[in-house]
C-alpha cells in the first residue's frame, strides 16, 4: 500500500514531510522539491534472503543487537506483514511478541526536528536508533552531515537554546547530549575504547576498569554458584573486552540524566536565574551582565507518569523538581510560546491535558480531551485517549494549541487564555486520522496548518489525501490536499504492520491485569 | 504428582499461616519460611504497584496511626460556591495528615532487620522501609504489627512502616524534595552481568534522585558484601557532584553503621559465612549556585 506522510516539519518556508523512511521537501506553495531516501534500503532489497535483519547500515555503528527472527523472515515480511500478523493474532504475552517479527523493524523516520534558524534538519530513524543531521540550504535541499547510531533507540529529541547541542531521550530512560555538528578535530575512531570521549561536569558512567571476576568465593556459597563463578572467570574476561570495544558509540556523547522508565518526551525551558542565591560571585556576574540571566532547564517525561525538571548543562545532575499529577503515561510536552515560557502543557494517556507552572512544579489546570473525542467518535466509541501531538502556535493574537489524539479523525484546537487556563475552541474534522501537525507562514493572524494524516479509504476504494493544508477562512476551514507522491510510496507493507508503527502511543499504557 | 501435591500443600499452608497472622490480636512474630520469595525482581516491569501520583496525596495514616492528627471534620476550606467544580480535581481529597514526615528510608528493606533495629534508636523519626517483593513486604508488615503489639506499654515500633514500592521508578512519588535525612541501601542485588548494570540500585542517573529526596547534609548509607558492587557504588557516588564521601572516622562513629553491619538480615548471613562487608557513606552537598 501507499505509505502516508506521517511527520511534517516546517523549516522557514520549506515544508519537510516524512513518508516511511524518506524525507520529502515542499515549497511554501506545496510543490514538491526533493526527496532524501534512506540509504540502507537498497541494500536490504538486494539482500532479500538474509535471515538477520540488517540493523546497522552505518559502518561506524556498533554491531546491532541480535534479534530473533522467524526463519525465512527478514525482508520477506515486508510483503507478508499483514498475513503474518493476522495469522498469529494478538501475541498473548510479551515473550510471544518478542518472537514475532518486530513490526517496527524498518527504520521509519520517527522524528523530525529543526534548528531555530532552519539551517539544520535532524531526523531520528527507528529500528537503527540513528540520529541524522542534515544541512538545509534554505531551498528544500538536504545534505547529510552526520549519522550517529545511539546506544538505545531515541524516542524524542530537542535542541538546547543555542542550537548547538542535541539532547536525545531514549527508550532506556537516558538523556544524551551530542553536539549538533561533531567537531572536526576529534578523531573518534582512534579514541581508546576504555576511555569514552564523553566528559562534562555531569557524571558519566565511569569507564570500566580492566575486567575482573565480579563475585568471589567469599560471596558465593552454593555448589552451583561456585561452578558458575568458575565458568564466569574463564569466559567473561574475553567477552567483556569484546563488548567494551564494540558497544560504545564512537562519537562524542555525554550522559546527562536518566529515568528508570522509558522516556517519551523532552523539551527545554528557560527561566530567570534565581535571585535568592546567596552566592556573591554569582550575583556579581549577574550585575555585570546588566540584564537578568536566563537559565535553561531540561524537562523530560516518561511512561511512568513523571515529568522531571533538571538543570541544563553543566548541572544536569541537579533535579529541580517534578510535575506530578498524571495518572497514566505522558507522551507529549510543550512549553508555551509567546513569552509564556513558564507554562508547560503535557498530554498522554489521561483524559486531560495538564497545564503546569513547571518552574515551581505546580499544576495550574486541566483541560478535557476525552469529552471532545467523544464528540467525534461517539459516546461509546471512545473510552480513553492517547494524545500524540500538542502543538502550540500563535493564533489570532493569542496562543493556540492544536492537539492530535491517536486514531481520532480530528484536530482539536485549544486556546491558552491569559489566566493560564486551556480552553477548547473547536474540533476540526480531518479526512483520515491526523499523525502530525505544523504551521506554515508568519504573516496574517492565523498561520496555515499542515496536517499529515493516515488516509481513510472510502467505500469506492479511493483514499483521502495524506498531506493536507488547512486555512482558516470566515466560512470555515478550507482543506487543500498536497500533491500526491505515489511514486514515493513504492514499497509494500501490510496495513496492520503499518498501523502498529504509526499508532504506537496507546501501547504505552500499562496493562491492568499484570503483576 | 507427589511433588505437585507437596507444593500445593505448602502453598495452602502459607496462605493459612498468613491469614492467621493477619487476624487482630496476634502478637507472635511471623516466621520467614512462610514469606519467602525469589530474591530478584525486575525493576523495569510494570508490577501492579500502588503509589500516589504526588507525595501530597500519599496517605501515611495507616502506616503510622499513632501520628495521625485529629482534624475536627476535614473542613479546612469551607465549601464556597465560588470555587469551580474543576478545582476539586486539582486538589484531590487530602489524606489524613500525620504530625511528622518520614525522614529515614531503607530502600530494599528485605525482611526488615534494619528497620526493626533502627526504630528504638531514633524514636522521634519516622522510618520507612521500601521493598519490591510482595511476600517480603507482607512479612515486614506482620513483623511490625507483632512488635507493636508486644511492646504495647513501651509504645515502641510506632515509628516504622513498610511499603511495597519500586523505588527506582517511584521514589519522587512518595517523598518531596529534601524530605529525607537518611537513606539506607543495604546489600542490594548485585546484578553481576554487565547487561544488567542498569538494574543496579546505584547509578549516576539514579543518584540524582537520591540527591533530590535528600536534604543537604543528609546521608546515604551503603553496605554490600560484593567487592565489585562496592567499587561500583563508590565510583558512581564519587562521580556525582551532589555527594561527598564521608571519612572513615566519622563513618565508624556513626551508630547507624554498626546497626547496618550487624542487624540487617543479609549482614547476619554474611557473618555466618565469614564474608566481607564493605561500607560507604555519602553526604548530600548543597546544590551549586544556578
TrEMBL record, chain A:
- Any single GO BP term: tRNA (guanine-N7)-methylation
One annotated Gene Ontology cellular component of this protein: cytosol
Pathway(s)? tRNA modification; N(7)-methylguanine-tRNA biosynthesis
> What SUPFAM superfamilies does UniProt report for this protein, alphabetically?
WD40 repeat-like
SMART domains given in the database record: WD40 (SM00320)
**Where does the UniProt entry say this protein principally localizes?**
nucleus
Chain intervals for the UniProt region annotation (Disordered): 45-101, 186-224
Keyword annotations from UniProtKB, A to Z: Nucleus, Repeat, tRNA processing, WD repeat
Cellular compartment(s): Nucleus
Highest taxon of the lineage? Eukaryota
Question: Where does each WD repeat begin and end?
Answer: 323-357
Where is the sequence biased in composition, kind Low complexity? 186-210
What the protein does?
Required for the formation of N(7)-methylguanine at position 46 (m7G46) in tRNA. In the complex, it is required to stabilize and induce conformational changes of the catalytic subunit.
Q: Which family does it belong to?
A: Belongs to the WD repeat TRM82 family.
State the name under which the record lists this protein. tRNA (guanine-N(7)-)-methyltransferase non-catalytic subunit TRM82
Q: Which organism is it from?
A: Corynascus novoguineensis
Lineage of origin: Eukaryota, Fungi, Dikarya, Ascomycota, Pezizomycotina
UniProtKB/TrEMBL annotation, chain B:
Substrates-to-products reaction catalysed: guanosine(46) in tRNA + S-adenosyl-L-methionine = N(7)-methylguanosine(46) in tRNA + S-adenosyl-L-homocysteine
Protein origin, superkingdom: Eukaryota
Localization recorded for this chain is: Nucleus
Keyword line = Methyltransferase, Nucleus, RNA-binding, S-adenosyl-L-methionine, Transferase, tRNA processing, tRNA-binding
Question: In what ranges is there compositional bias, type Basic and acidic residues?
Answer: 1-21
The record's active-site residues are 189
Where do the record's region annotations for Disordered lie?
1-33, 69-95
PROSITE patterns membership: SAM_MT_TRMB (PS51625)
Could you give one GO CC term from the UniProt record? tRNA (m7G46) methyltransferase complex
Claim: Phosphoprotein is one of the keywords in the record? no
Q: In which pathway does it act?
A: tRNA modification; N(7)-methylguanine-tRNA biosynthesis
Q: Where does S-adenosyl-L-methionine bind?
A: 108, 131-132, 166-167, 186, 264-266
What are the GO MF terms of this UniProt record?
Answer: tRNA (guanine(46)-N7)-methyltransferase activity; tRNA binding
**InterPro entries attached to this UniProt entry:** SAM-dependent_MTases_sf, Trm8_euk, tRNA_(Gua-N-7)_MeTrfase_Trmb
Recorded hits in PANTHER family, A to Z, give: 3-DEOXY-D-MANNO-OCTULOSONIC-ACID TRANSFERASE/TRNA GUANINE-N 7 - -METHYLTRANSFERASE (PTHR23417), TRNA (GUANINE-N(7)-)-METHYLTRANSFERASE (PTHR23417:SF16)
NCBIfam families for this protein: tRNA (guanosine(46)-N7)-methyltransferase TrmB
Q: Of which family is this protein a member?
A: Belongs to the class I-like SAM-binding methyltransferase superfamily. TrmB family.
State what protein this is by name: tRNA (guanine-N(7)-)-methyltransferase
Q: Which gene encodes it?
A: TRM8
Amino acid at each position: 500500500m501507499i505509505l502516508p506522510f506521517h511527520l511534517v516539519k516546517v523549516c522557514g518556508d520549506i515544508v519537510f514531510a516524512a513518508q516511511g523512511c524518506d524525507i520529502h521537501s515542499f515549497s511554501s506553495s506545496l510543490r514538491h522539491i526533493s526527496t532524501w531516501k534512506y540509504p540502507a534500503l537498497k541494500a536490504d532489497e538486494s539482500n532479500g534472503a538474509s535471515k538477520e535483519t540488517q540493523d546497522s547500515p552505518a559502518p561506524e555503528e556498533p554491531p546491532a543487537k541480535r534479534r530473533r527472527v522467524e526463519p525465512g523472515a527478514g525482508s520477506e515480511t515486508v510483503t507478508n506483514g499483514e498475513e503474518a500478523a493476522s495469522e498469529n493474532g494478538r501475541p498473548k504475552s510479551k515473550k510471544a511478541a518478542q518472537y514475532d517479527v518486530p513490526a517496527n523493524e524498518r527504520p521509519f523516520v520517527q522524528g523530525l526536528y529543526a534548528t531555530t534558524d532552519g539551517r539544520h534538519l535532524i531526523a531520528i530513524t527507528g529500528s537503527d536508533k540513528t540520529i541524522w543531521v542534515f544541512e538545509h540550504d534554505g531551498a528544500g535541499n538536504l545534505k547529510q552531515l552526520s549519522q550517529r547510531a545511539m546506544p538505545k533507540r531515541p524516542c524524542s529529541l530537542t535542541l538546547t537554546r543555542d542550537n548547538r547541542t542535541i539532547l536525545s531521550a531514549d527508550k532506556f530512560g537516558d538523556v544524551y547530549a551530542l553536539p549538533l555538528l561533531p567537531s572536526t578535530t576529534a578523531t573518534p575512531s582512534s579514541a581508546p575504547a576504555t576511555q569514552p570521549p564523553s566528559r562534562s561536569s555531569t557524571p558519566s558512567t565511569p569507564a570500566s576498569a580492566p575486567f575482573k571476576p565480579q563475585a568471589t568465593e567469599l560471596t558465593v556459597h552454593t555448589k552451583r554458584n561456585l561452578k558458575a563463578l568458575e565458568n564466569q572467570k574463564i569466559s567473561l574476561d574475553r567477552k567483556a573486552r569484546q563488548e567494551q570495544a564494540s558497544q560504545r558509540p564512537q562519537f562524542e556523547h555525554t550522559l546527562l540524566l536518566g529515568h528508570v522508565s522509558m522516556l517519551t518526551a523532552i523539551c527545554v525551558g528557560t527561566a530567570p536565574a534565581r535571585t535568592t542565591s546567596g552566592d556573591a560571585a554569582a550575583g556579581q556576574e549577574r550585575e555585570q551582565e546588566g540584564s537578568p540571566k536566563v537559565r535553561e532547564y531540561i524537562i523530560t517525561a516518561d511512561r511512568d507518569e513523571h515529568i522531571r525538571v533538571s538543570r541544563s548543562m553543566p548541572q544536569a545532575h541537579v533535579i529541580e523538581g517534578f510535575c506530578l499529577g498524571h495518572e497514566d503515561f505522558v507522551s507529549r510536552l510543550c512549553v508555551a510560546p509567546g513569552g509564556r515560557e513558564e507554562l508547560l502543557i503535557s498530554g498522554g494517556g489521561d483524559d486531560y491535558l495538564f497545564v503546569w507552572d513547571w518552574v515551581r512544579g505546580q499544576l495550574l489546570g486541566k483541560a478535557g480531551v476525552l469529552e471532545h473525542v467523544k464528540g467525534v467518535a461517539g459516546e461509546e466509541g471512545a473510552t480513553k485517549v492517547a494524545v500524540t501531538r500538542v502543538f502550540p502556535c500563535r493564533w489570532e493574537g493569542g496562543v493556540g494549541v492544536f492537539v492530535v489524539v491517536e486514531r481520532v479523525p480530528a484536530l482539536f484546537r485549544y486556546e491558552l487564555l491569559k489566566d493560564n487556563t486551556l480552553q477548547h475552541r473547536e474540533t476540526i474534522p480531518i479526512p483520515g486520522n491526523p499523525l502530525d501537525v505544523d504551521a506554515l507562514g508568519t504573516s496574517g493572524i492565523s498561520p496555515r496548518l499542515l496536517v499529515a494524516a493516515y488516509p481513510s479509504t472510502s467505500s469506492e476504494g479511493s483514499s483521502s489525501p495524506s498531506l493536507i493544508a488547512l486555512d482558516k477562512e470566515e466560512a470555515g476551514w478550507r482543506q487543500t490536499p498536497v500533491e500526491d507522491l505515489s511514486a514515493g510510496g513504492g514499497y509494500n507493507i501490510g496495513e496492520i504492520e503499518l498501523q502498529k508503527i504509526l499508532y504506537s502511543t496507546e501501547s504505552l499504557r500499562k496493562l491492568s491485569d499484570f503483576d | 504428582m507427589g511433588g505437585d501435591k507437596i507444593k500445593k500443600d505448602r502453598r495452602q499452608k502459607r496462605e493459612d499461616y498468613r491469614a492467621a497472622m493477619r487476624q487482630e490480636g496476634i502478637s507472635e512474630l511471623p516466621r520467614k519460611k512462610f514469606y519467602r520469595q525469589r530474591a530478584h525482581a525486575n525493576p523495569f516491569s510494570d508490577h501492579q504497584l500502588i503509589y500516589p501520583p504526588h507525595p501530597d496525596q500519599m496517605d501515611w495514616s495507616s502506616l503510622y496511626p499513632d501520628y495521625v492528627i485529629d482534624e475536627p471534620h476535614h473542613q479546612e476550606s469551607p465549601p464556597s460556591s465560588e470555587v469551580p467544580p474543576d478545582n476539586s480535581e486539582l486538589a484531590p481529597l487530602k489524606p489524613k495528615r500525620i504530625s511528622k514526615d518520614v525522614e529515614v528510608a531503607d530502600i530494599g528493606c528485605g525482611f526488615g532487620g534494619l528497620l526493626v533495629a533502627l526504630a528504638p534508636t531514633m524514636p522521634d523519626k519516622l522510618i520507612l522501609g521500601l521493598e519490591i517483593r510482595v511476600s517480603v513486604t507482607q512479612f515486614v508488615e506482620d513483623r511490625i504489627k507483632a512488635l507493636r503489639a508486644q511492646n504495647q506499654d513501651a509504645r515502641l515500633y510506632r515509628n516504622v512502616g513498610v511499603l511495597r514500592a519500586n523505588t527506582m521508578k517511584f521514589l519522587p512519588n512518595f517523598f518531596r524534595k529534601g524530605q529525607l535525612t537518611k537513606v539506607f541501601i543495604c546489600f542490594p542485588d548485585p546484578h553481576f552481568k554487565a547487561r544488567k548494570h542498569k538494574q543496579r540500585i546505584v547509578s549516576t542517573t539514579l543518584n540524582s534522585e537520591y540527591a533530590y529526596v535528600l536534604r543537604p547534609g543528609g546521608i546515604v548509607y551503603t553496605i554490600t558484601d560484593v567487592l565489585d558492587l562496592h567499587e561500583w557504588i563508590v565510583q558512581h557516588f564519587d562521580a556525582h557532584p551532589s555527594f561527598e564521601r564521608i571519612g572513615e572516622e566519622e563513618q565508624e562513629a556513626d551508630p547507624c553503621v554498626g546497626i547496618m553491619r550487624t542487624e540487617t538480615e543479609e549482614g547476619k548471613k554474611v557473618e555466618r559465612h565469614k564474608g566481607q562487608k564493605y561500607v560507604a557513606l555519602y553526604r548530600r552537598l548543597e546544590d551549586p549556585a544556578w
